[in-house]
Design brief:
mainly alpha, two-stranded antiparallel ribbon, elongated
Length: 754
């Protein structure tokens, strides 16, 4: 059948061959000037195209193809004798492809090829005699013409795959094209700089599989296409941008671990330097470059900082945000402490305007800080700081960028500040934690023992129509400011403290970013200073209006003893010896060793809450101002005061948030006697039943002084209850959510600690 096919198509093949020769001659500019060479080439190619110029050849099966190579085209030509009879179908192994479309060679492909001046047998040397072998040697073209490429290719990983029989291994033809091959400089070439990256990407995506070690070819491809290099070529069409072959080489492609690879650790900075010549010269003079030149494996090279495929412009936000992780791979101890500074926390949360490692230490020109060329040496340090803080003075440079407040030897001031604040935080939490647990246990015991009586007294306090004023409208207004500013400060400040948690990042996104959070935080600070100033002003005003109370009746003038008696008397929330007695009586009641104590207008825990505001505003307020205006404060204070301020501000804020959302909420609202809300701070009034049940000393004192009716309340609260209660519950809800997030953040760090 194969022989009949050849015989019936022989005449057509002969005609087709002549036509093909004519096309090739025309494409090559065939003229009398080319003379014998063109005629000789056409004659040689015509012999091949008699068969391969027929489109049918690409559809023939294995047996028919075998018959063709075993058929003598000219019985009188003894040079075509083939003693092994390759056309014998019995020699088929059974693994041959069903069809081979590539056997068909289009005439126009040859005419437009860069090899149009070549004869077929120049590349297919073993086809010089007919019939030729069923399988030709595909390496002859490279060996005879492209010597350098032929020598480089066998040393690479692609050749290793080819040698192992990998059917997907790249060859000359699969990368450069077959008979249609055009010059690499031609935009139609698959190896043109605009096209080669897609050819490599397609091959690596299809042929390579994910490895157990985590190598995912697709990720590298996608990363490169989205990188500065990939975008320059794929989107901007800049042929000067590096392609795969520029970095990995074109023919001698080696694994990165191979010392011969251009992207091996020891070679990569020279490879990058072929394009980035100026940067290479700077890098070689740097400390990192000197280590690399010495062959130190720990030396950072281009790909350690910029990565291999995910390269982005250094002026992009993403580059700065990732810089901490990349520097931290080598400088783990430094980056750990850097992240505890405002710079580190803000950068981790996505604020690019703060100082990253390279803003202070340099990048390609980095040298030890003791080197006179360092940006942090001598007077140069101030200039470096002034890049972000233009009004900074010499004292500002005393700020410790990588301070470790747990290191007593190197940073004693920071260490003892941290110890002091830790003792306050832990001591307060332990004391009030035990206090809360005991109170809750006692209340639960009373509730279980006599549930009806417990509910009865609680209902009586709520339904009693007779009320007295406890807080004036101005006091209630100030509490609204306290509540609003406190929630705002905690919501915007705690994500910065717990920057390492996922919820901190989400809260910052919801707020609008670190800059928006900073502005809101400062607004909260302004409100805090405002209500504190208003309260202090109101104290002086009331003292002036009621100045007669400071006069000693017997002496007829103001005395220190009388002033102290009034200030530390029962009508004002300042400490008194009676508070210690009340606390002890309360403890006895917790353990069932005494009656439930009766209090005056102010309880000992309320006085603690009140005075804690003074402490908090002083500690948090002053430290916050130092961090808000660091250049101003360091005009007369050393720069390390900023480090001290951060420790105080952070720990005191944690203390305040934990105390208010846990202990204050329980003492005032969430203990069983008051749950779910005690509206006295919103309504300003207290029922007579509640006074007699909890503050009988105050009630008796008012009755004895004849002042009870002067504080009797009207019933305007009912008009506001439906508005104020929902706002109160919203505040409680936000506070409890923040408390849970804070506890989670602290627990996750403590559990993760080695």
């Amino acid at each position: 059948m194969a022989l009949n096919t050849i015989q019936t198509g022989f005449l057509g093949a002969r005609v087709t061959g002549w036509l093909a020769a004519l096309v090739v001659a025309m494409a090559a500019g065939g003229s009398s000037a080319q003379g014998v060479d063109t005629a000789e080439r056409d004659a040689a190619n015509r012999r091949c195209l008699r068969c391969h110029g027929q489109e049918k050849i690409g559809t023939l099966g294995p047996g028919e193809r075998r018959s063709m190579v075993g058929t003598l085209l000219d019985p009188n030509d003894t040079s075509q004798a083939f003693p092994e009879k390759p056309g014998d179908a019995a020699l088929l192994k059974g693994d041959e492809p069903a069809t081979r479309p590539g056997l068909f060679v289009a005439h126009e492909a040859l005419a437009g090829s860069v090899h149009r001046e070549n004869k077929c047998v120049d590349c297919h040397e073993d086809a010089a005699k007919l019939p030729h072998e069923p399988k030709l040697n595909t390496k002859t073209c490279a060996a005879s013409c492209h010597t350098k490429a032929a020598e480089a290719f066998p040393s690479g990983a692609h050749y290793e795959a080819l040698k192992k029989g990998d059917p997907l291994a790249p060859t000359c033809a699969s990368c450069h094209g077959g008979h249609r091959i055009v010059a690499v400089s031609d935009t139609k070439s698959p190896q043109h700089r605009l096209n080669s990256i897609f050819l490599c990407a397609e091959c690596h995506e299809k042929h390579l599989k994910d490895t157990p070690s985590g190598y995912v070819p697709r990720k590298h491809i996608e990363a490169y296409l989205h990188s500065a290099h990939g975008k320059a070529i794929a989107q901007s069409g800049l042929v000067a941008a590096p392609t795969c072959a520029d970095c990995h080489s074109a023919h001698a492609v080696h694994p990165v671990s191979d010392p011969r690879s251009p992207v091996n650790h020891a070679n990569v900075y020279e490879t990058c330097g072929r394009c980035h010549v100026g940067i290479l010269n700077i890098y070689k003079q740097s400390y990192h470059g000197q280590l690399a030149a010495e062959g130190k494996k720990e030396a950072p090279v281009c790909t350690d900082c910029h990565t291999a495929h995910e390269i982005i412009q250094p002026d992009q936000v993403a580059f700065k945000l990732a810089s901490g992780d990349r520097c931290g791979k080598c400088h783990e101890d430094r980056i750990e402490h850097y992240r505890e500074t405002f710079h580190g926390k803000a950068l981790e949360l996505g604020l690019p305007k703060v100082a990253a490692c390279y803003d202070c230490h340099g990048h390609h020109d980095i040298v030890p800080i003791k080197d006179p060329k360092s940006r942090l040496f001598g007077d140069a340090k101030l200039k470096t700081c002034q890049q972000c803080h233009p009004t900074a003075t010499a004292k500002f440079t005393d700020y410790i960028a990588h301070a470790d407040h747990t290191n007593r030897e190197l940073y004693p001031t920071l260490y003892w500040t941290f110890i002091f604040m830790t003792m306050i935080v832990v001591g307060t939490f332990l004391f009030f934690g035990a206090h809360t647990i005991l109170w809750l246990a006692r209340s639960a015991y009373i509730y279980v023992r006599d549930r009806q009586a417990f509910k009865k007294i609680k209902a009586a306090c709520a339904k009693d129509p007779e009320h007295f004023v406890r807080f004036k409208p101005f006091d209630r207004f100030l509490h609204v400011l306290v509540m609003t500013s406190f929630l705002l400060l905690v919501a915007t400040g705690m994500p910065l403290k717990f920057y390492y948690t996922a919820w901190a990042h989400e809260v910052m996104k919801w707020i609008g970013g670190v800059e928006a959070a900073a502005q809101l935080h400062r607004l909260g600070a302004v409100i805090t200073f405002a209500y504190f100033t208003l309260h202090i002003g109101s104290l002086f005003r009331r003292g002036y209006v009621n100045r007669a109370q400071f006069k000693d009746a017997a002496k007829g003038r103001v005395t220190i003893k009388r002033v102290v008696g009034v200030v530390f008397g029962p009508d004002l929330p300042y400490p008194h010896v009676q508070d210690v007695k009340d606390w002890w009586a309360h403890q006895k009641w917790f353990f069932g060793k005494g009656p439930q104590p009766q209090f005056d207008k102010w309880t000992y825990w309320e006085k603690f809450d009140y005075l804690a505001v003074f402490w908090g505003v002083a500690m948090i307020g002053v430290s916050g101002l130092v961090m808000w205006f660091p250049e101003t404060f360091t005009r007369f204070l050393p720069g390390w005061v900023i480090n001290v301020a951060l420790i105080i501000h952070s720990d005191e804020a944690l203390l305040a948030a934990g105390f208010i959302f846990a202990f204050h909420f329980f003492n005032v609202h969430f203990r069983p006697e008051k749950f779910p809300i005690d509206s006295v701070i919103f309504s300003g009034r207290i029922s007579k039943t509640e006074m007699l049940h909890e503050r009988k000393r105050w009630y008796d004192r008012l009755v004895a002084a004849g002042r009870l009716d002067s504080i009797r309340s009207s019933d305007e609260w009912t008009q506001w209850r439906k508005v104020i209660h929902p706002l109160g519950f919203i505040a409680f809800g936000l506070g409890l959510i923040l408390l849970v997030l804070i506890v989670y953040a602290m627990s996750s760090r403590l559990l993760a600690a080695p």
